[in-house]
Structure formats: C-alpha cells, structure tokens
Specification:
six-stranded antiparallel beta sheet; 15 strands; disordered N terminus; 25% strand; D-amino Acid Aminotransferase, Chain A, domain 1; Dna Ligase, domain 1; homotrimer; four-stranded parallel beta sheet
C-alpha cells in the first residue's frame, strides 16, 4: 500500500476527501470543507437528491459507480484527483472487509484494524489482552446460566441478534439459524457509545505512549423495534435490534475517567498488535447499577451516532468549538500534511 | 382573503409577526426578531410572566383578549400594526379549524390545508393519492387481526388514543367511548418526527415542481404516561399518549432520502389538491426493523418538537447556522417581501 | 462565616474559582474561565488524567488532598489564592452535609439550604409551606393503597430506591432494609428536571420579591438498570435507579409557566425560612397525562444534567448564547463583585 502511495499519491498537491454517499457522509464532507479540502461523493447511479437540501454536506462532485465493489476500477480516476478515502460503517459493509482491504487508494486510518475488528474472535482477543472488561462468552450452550445475547458473525447494526433468558429459550431460538454465532452474558445496565478519536501524531492533551486521545461525544442508539415495545405493554412481540437512529447524552463525570482508561488500553494494545487503530473509534459500553463498565463491541471507524454532533458535542466543545468527528478527520489529515507525517494516518 | 389583503394590508410598510402565546411562540418571536421584524403576542389576560425570563423569546408587545375566539374582533387593530399571524398547533386548537379559517388577517401558510388536515378522512385521501405508505385502516372492527391503535377525531396530542391487541380488547375499550374514531394497524417500529419546510418561492436546494424542500430537524415525542411505564415493570396501568415534551434525535443517513421522497410526494399532491402546503410541516413516521417507513400523521404547521432546535439542529446546521423553524418562517416572509411574492406564502 | 470572610477574604483581589474534580467540575471550570477567573481543582492523589483531553474544562492548577474531608486543613492555602468554592452534588456527598457546613471558606450560594435539603422531612416542610404540589407520603404503611416509591434517607442518585405496587410488596421488600425511609405515592407520568437559577441581585427578567429567576435547561435522567429493562421484555429483574447519565429535552411551552410558578414559590419560601436558596437549583418533577405537575425532590445546587448544556440549551439560548449553569455561577460572582454585593451570593 505505502508503495503505491509513494509512487502515485502526490503529497504536494492538495487532497480531495472522498467517501461513499451514506452513513455519515454529510458530516465527513462538511468537515472536510471546513478544513479547506475538495470533496467527492461516490454513489450508485444518480447522486442522491437529498444532498441538495444540505449545501454544507454536499460534496463538490460525485463519482457514479455501478456497484461499490468496483471502486477499485476507478482507482486511477480517484488518484488523479488526489483522493483520500474515508471509511465509514456502510463503506466497509458494502464492500466487505476483504474488498475494502484491497483498495489501492490512500485511505484514512489503518486498514490493518479490519482483520481484528471484523472477526469477533480476534476482536475479543485484542480487547482481552488490553484488559478491557468484557461480557463472559459461552462456548458450550449447556453452561448458560442467566440471560444471554446471541450475535451472528458479520451481522450489522444489531440485525438478527436475539436475547435468551435461559438455556431452553436459547435452544428454541437458535434452531431457526444456520449462521455462526457467539453467546455472551447479557449485561443489565445502561449502554453508552463513546466516540473517541486517536491521533498518533498529536502530542498534547491526553497522552498515550505515542500520540493522544480525544472524546468527541457520547450517544445512545434507537433500535427498531425494541426501543418502542414499551408502548405496547405486556405484548408478546419478539424484540429486534436494528439501529435506526441516535440520541445525544452525557454521562456522569466520574465515568468519563473509566471510559478513557479503557480506550487507552484498547489503543495501546492495538499499537502492539497491528500498528494502531488510527482516527475515530467507538467503545460500545454498558454501565451497571454498581457503575461497572463492560465493553460489548468496538467500532474501528466513524459511527453514525456522531451525526448528532455535526456542530459539536458537550465534550468536543471543551476541546474546540464546532469540532465534529468528520471535521476532526479532515483536521488530522491537514496536521499530518503540515508535519510531513501522512504515512502515519493513512494506509 | 386575498381581496382583504389587497385592500388593507400594506406591503410597503414593515410587518409585525404575531401569534398566540403558547406552543412554539418563543421560537417564533425569537426567529422574527433575528430577521428584523416587530413582534406581538396575543394572550388571555395578563401577559404570561415567564416571557420575562427569556428576553429573546419575548414579543415586543402583547395584545390581551378575553378568548382566543375573539381575535377577529381585533382584526382592525392587528391590521393597523400590519400583523402577519403565524399559526401553530395551539393556535388552531384554541380557535377551532372553522374559526381559524375565518380569520380576516394575513396568515402565514395556506389556510386551505386545514380542511384537508383536520379531517382524518381527507388527510388520508391526500396522503394515499400522494403514494405515501400508510398504516392499514379498518372500517369493519370484525376484521381486526393484529394490534391496532384507535384515534378519535379532533383529539389533540394523542389524548384518548388507545391500543388494542385484539378484536375483543377493541370491543371492550371502545364501549366507553361515544366519539367517532378510526382504527389503524399499529405499526411496530421506532417513530421519527421529521420537521420539514416547503418554500414555494425558493429555487435552490431540493427542488420540487415549484419551490423547494428543507429538513430542519427530527425529534421524538415523550408521552405521558406511556413513556415511563417502563419504570414500573409488569404493572397493569392503561397507557396514555399525551405529549409532554420532545427528545432530539438523528436518523440513519440512508433513511433521510426516503423521508424526502415521502415529503416531496406529499407536497406535490398538496399543490394539485389545494394549492400547496406552504411553510413548516411535520411527517410523523414509524420505521420498522426492515427499515420501511409508514406515515401515521401529517401536521401542517410548526410543531413543538422544533423548540429543541431554537439554535439549530444537526440538519439545519448543514443549511445555515442557527436556523430554527421559527426563524425560517420569518426568513420566508422576508424573501417573499423582497421578491414581491407575499401572496404565495400568505393566505 | 461572614466574620471569617470579612477578615480574611480579599474582595479587591481577583478570585480563584475552586471545586472538587467530579460531577460538573469541567463545566464549572470552563464557565469560570470564560468569565475571566483563575481556577483550581481539588482532587485526591494525582490529578485525573482525563482533564488533559478537555483543555477548556481543565483547571489552571490542582490541589491534592488525601481525603475530601480534610479540605478545611487547606483553608489557609485556599484563602491565600482567594478561592471561592463552588459546591456540586459530589462535593456535598463526599464531605457530608455537616462537614460541608463547617468549611471555613467562602462558598457560592447559601449554606443554610443544606439543613433544609439534606433532611427529607425539612425539605418536605419547606416545599409544603411553599404550596408546591407533592406526592402524598405515608406514615403508616398499612394505609398504602396504590403504587409507592420508597426512598432511603441520605441515599444519593436513586441508589436503593424501590417501587412497590401494594402493601404486601412493600412489606416483603422493606424486610431487607434497616435504614430509615419515606414512602411516597408513585406518580405515574413523565419526569422533567428543571435547571433553574436564582439570583438575589439581578433586577431584570422574571422578578421575585427580591432578585430574579432564570431557566437554563431541562433534562431527563438515565437510570441503571431500569432505563433499559425494556430490552429484556417481561423478565423478572428488580429495577434499580442509579443515575448514570442524562438526556436533553424540551417541554410543552404551556408547562414552562407552571414550572416557573412552582420555582417562584420555592424560592420565596426559602427566603422566608433561611435567607434564600441562592444560585442554581433543580426541581425534579413529574407531569401526569392531565398535565398536572408534582415535585418529588429539589436539588439545591448545580445538577449533573446541566453538563448537557455546556454550550447552551434551547432555554438559556433565549437569554444569552453559550450560557451554561457553570458559567452563570461565575457570571453571578462577577456581577456581585462589581455591585459590591458579594455577601449576598456567598456564605
């Protein structure tokens, strides 16, 4: 990858920030514009009309493809425009992890994280090594003793997850499924999604062994249908967990410290394992009534919850006003460019 | 109406933005002030003291009436001050649709929408013609097969609505009621309230056959008592649905496109049917776990959820900073005034 | 107290705003900095590392103590720096009400409120005299007729509270407890936490017999585990009520008036009883589906929910932009200083 970059990527010319038109793309484009970059949106067919309603979130130009998996066919075009790709959840989902890794284009962040994050086993290994508190996993369903959540490999946005309150309920529900899965203790508490940003090149602030850590916001997720089953009382509807939106929140100040400690260990371990998770990431946590934290997932890129904070959050406002995650990405590229350290934030 | 306006409304003098002191009035006044208008608040008895606590939301002057239904008696006074009335939910509720329509004062938006929106049958007809996905309605209660919601005509803010999980439960609950009602399928999912704005005179942005469409925010509603029944566990309390407040949210970016498509069809049909729904309106939607949208209601004016966004929302910030719905209304009047097209935004 | 102040507190030099590093301290420090004060954070052991991530919320210097109860040992050091202490929920909790009252340092607000607020009986007496609508209390458990909530004296953040749906359930649950408690009717509705600010020296705005009243924001609380039991359906888990975070909300405009009326009566009564609750306070309310208000608690200082509004709320934005409660405290000190009326806002 770096080979390609060195040959074909022009570090002197200015860049075009490019991403797929979905997920958090308006935030990414608006942030890039604020930092003075050109922007390019990749879409299938006609550019989505709704961008016209949001001038600050609309990219300067569109590139139409037939399928997101053929982005590599346009590598030359994108290199001519000196594009840096910004990955987001849908970007990786649409391409698939392996196609994404093959992209012969400079990409923000460290693509090596994908192998560790898209495989639940490796992700757990990474977080365990980091000393992050995780829900217990069951390899033998016969050992299930309380309430568990069952997650399918590759399932996105909570789709297909189910909760079982006993071994028997698990056996009944799993019978319908063929996919591979993991069984985890369901931790009873309140979930918080921490939107962190790790910069390997920034030397101020919350320092790590290398670079520093920022918290740009916290959100909660709204899942269809489970979030509104409360309106129906004691009705027998199977809950589903498809994320449809997000709520802004703040957390007790004393819990922020714990959040940072977990994030710090997660990043330090990522540096040892694969050179570091660079840029935005999300710790998906649950806080019990004893104020204990558990991490049930890590997202290694910008999350949709950050769309709440396109003009800043109660946390990012304590760093710099109007600093969204999208803008922070663009800022990181800008800083790296000035320092001549782009290789550390791109891959 | 236009007759009256032409005779008595002075298009050369500057306007006073006027509304009833309730609902979203502080937002309307603050927005009007930012756009340089004078403001007047209509109230019963003494001006509400709490306005003093919010200098930017307090109108320049108050007009005291004995009852909101007698506003027309003050038509001359209001015309002297060159007032434009801004309708909001409480305004229309307090006057009643027919009294509201009789107001002999220039009013923001198209009053003709009232006949289509206040009658559930005509509203459904409008939305059906527009191709908007709607929950199924039952004319014969014997055909009820799943969970349904029963809504009474003229009921405001969810008051008196009930949910029934079977034909039998419906029969038991309806026995207590004498009002006319509709029975709809209860769509299981998560509800989102889209705060749109349609301008018939703006030519940029998300274009329609005439004018353009904006999204100024999305919220969720907090209903008493159902929203907090969760705290009581499996207790047998009949849920009620009286809106008491609002929560700010964002929705998956891929769902914004669908929201705009539905809004576009709704407006285009309104133009065909009655000359167009002008200004703010709210699509009240539910999103299933298959990410399908249903619209269960349309509000044809500023909604209270927009009070969340008095200084901008994650959506309006991508258009222009600090653009509330209240301010957008004032801006629309200002633009129309400059273009000499006030007749298109007033009625 | 005033004796000490007059002797040792230098009203001519500028002040250092000091508080314990927890709860809402970043908001307090950031607000103080915006108003031009020096800031000092009191912490146990090493300064918490996470402050480095939030430069605007980090105090200029730290004072390390072995235990918060020994702050008085550092009184001389703090007086040398001309410190004003800002109390917050954790501050009072860590010291205990009686230790807090003994602090021989100028403290923002009226310490006399503590005796009235930390004792549930006196708090109820105060609010009853003020004519504030309160949930019924039961002195005799045999009279319990509906759903009740049981609160333990001194319990913080909802810890240990329980709900009982009958006399029998109450008897079963109380058997495990030895602490003293109160039994209140559980009011079914939606809870809103009003963040008010009372200034005894400001003469504009919402006037009281002396000074004036402001509303800086409204929030809802997220309690672990009860807030997310909805995800588990009809499962038999005992709900707990430990606050872990907060959600931003707005309330129906017509309910704001009622909120102010209750806050006004609460303050007027506090002036009569103990010279007034000065500065920020929170009315913890529940609104029924008949839009009736009940107050179930008053917090006599800055609450953590105000951390949502570090850059302003939909309410404070109608007063002055970017006015957090933390900043409002600093502003009050600044105004009092200019007017030579510091004695009225410190104790």
């Amino acid at each position: 990858m770096k080979q390609i970059m060195k040959q074909e990527f022009d570090y002197q010319r200015d860049f075009t920030v490019a991403t797929i038109c979905s997920h958090s793309s308006m935030q990414i484009f608006s942030g890039a514009k604020l930092e003075g970059f050109k922007t390019l949106g990749i879409c299938i067919g006609e550019p989505p009309k709704f961008y016209n309603a949001f001038p600050k979130g609309k990219p300067d130009e569109f590139l139409t493809v037939n399928s997101y998996t053929e982005i590599n066919k346009f590598a030359e075009v994108l290199r001519e425009k000196n594009c840096i790709l910004i990955p987001h959840g849908s970007f990786v989902e649409y391409l698939g992890a392996s196609e994404f890794e093959k992209l012969e284009l400079p990409t923000f962040g460290n693509k090596a994280v994908l192998g560790w994050e898209s495989d639940r086993k490796k992700e757990r290994d990474w977080l365990s090594r980091a000393g992050v508190p995780l829900p217990r996993e069951y390899t033998d369903p016969n050992l299930i003793s309380g309430t568990v959540i069952v997650k399918f490999h590759g399932a996105k946005g909570g789709k297909g997850f189910f909760i079982a309150r006993s071994k028997e309920e698990f056996q009944n529900k799993i019978a319908e499924h063929r996919e591979s899965y993991v069984i985890q203790d369901y931790i009873v508490g309140t979930r918080y999604y921490f939107q962190f940003f790790y910069s390997p090149i920034r030397e101020e602030g919350y320092r790590l062994s290398k670079g520093s850590l920022e918290l740009l916001g916290i959100d909660k997720r709204i899942e269809s249908n489970v979030y509104e089953l409360y309106r129906l009382g004691n009705i027998d509807i199977e809950p589903t967990f498809v994320v449809t939106g997000n709520l802004p929140v703040v957390i007790r100040e004393s819990l922020i410290q714990k959040g940072f400690e977990i994030a710090e260990r997660t990043i330090e371990e990522s540096i040892r394992l694969f050179g570091g998770l660079v840029g935005p990431f999300c710790l998906e946590t649950v806080v019990t009534d004893r104020l204990e934290f558990y991490v049930f997932e890590v997202s290694a890129r910008i999350v949709a919850g950050s769309n709440l904070y396109i003009s800043g959050s109660p946390y990012s406002d304590l760093v710099e006003e109007k600093m969204s995650t999208g803008r922070r990405i663009a800022r990181e590229i800008r800083i790296a460019q000035k320092l001549g350290r782009l290789e550390e934030v791109l891959s």
